[in-house]
Amino acid sequence: MSARVGVPSKGRLRDECLSLLTSAGYTTGMLHGAGSIATVGPLEMIEMRPRDAAAALAAGQLDAAFLATDIIAESELEDLPALPLGFSRSDLVLASRDDDGRTGAADLHGAVVATHLPRLTERFFAGKGIDVTVVAMGGSLEGVCAAGLADAIVDLRETGTSLMTNRLRVLEVIRPCEALFVHRPDVAPLYDLILRVDAVLSARRHRYVMLHVPRERLDDLRAVFPGLASPTVLPLAGRDDLVAVHFVVRNGDLWARLGDLRAMGATGIVALTPQALLP
Fold it and tell me: What is this structure's pTM?
């Protein structure tokens, strides 16, 4: 039994996904652009446009795909299991010109809204009972609105720079978006892929810390850094006053409590990024 997995064929999402797969121990050298295929064990990885991958997943031609939240919602795949990947983050927003006097979605009754997500946009306005004309467009939607070809747009915002450049303002944040690994349930060949990807993502959120600390401060350290189960404590050759301690901690917690380690007399502090982490 095999499984077919859609991989983005270009852009930053592709780069991030290939990096993730490589970190999870998969060979991706055979993936070199749209249409390329890499067979790795029971997995057949196919590079394709995310919109095409979503359509193929919806039609049952793929078993899984690396997609962004907006494409998943547009293709109505939100009922499928999904693993958040923590990258390609943005916001899906409703925006209009900053001089049109509008302050919210309700002010767009009867307006023309341009978007690359027509079905999602229609559902959004229908849910609010607002009558608009949704026009499917690609390319730079900010320019379309700025030129007066649409009254508003539904588009992704990463930094907001393009909106400001085109003198647009956000009327509403529709939803946060990020990359996800979305898949059909109970596809056995995907179990190992999901396990390995999840292990890499967990590792990226943590650090493996090694340090020396006075023996009498061990209880204080355990109270602050309990580790996955408990810190590993090792003797130091020729030193009865110090012990070596190893533990796993979330990135943010390490930096927030680094001063506490120093206050406990910790020395020789080394923090490493693990390759994989399975709590």
Answer: 0.88
pLDDT in tens, 120-165: 999 999 999 999 999 999 888 988 888 889 999 999 998 889 999 9
Q: In this structure, is residue 279 part of a structural domain?
A: no
Tokens standing for residue 47: 């590079």
Residues 74, 134, single domain; the answer is: no
pLDDT tens-digit map of 223-233: 999 998 999 99
DSSP secondary structure, 160-175, as one string? SHHHHHTTEEEEEEEE
Phi, psi (rounded to 5 degrees) for 28: -120, 10
Same domain, 188 and 56: yes
Residue ranges making up the domain that contains 39 = 3-87+178-203
Looking at the structure, do residues 8 and 80 belong to the same domain, yes or no?
yes
Q: CB 67: neighbour CB atoms within 10 A?
A: 29
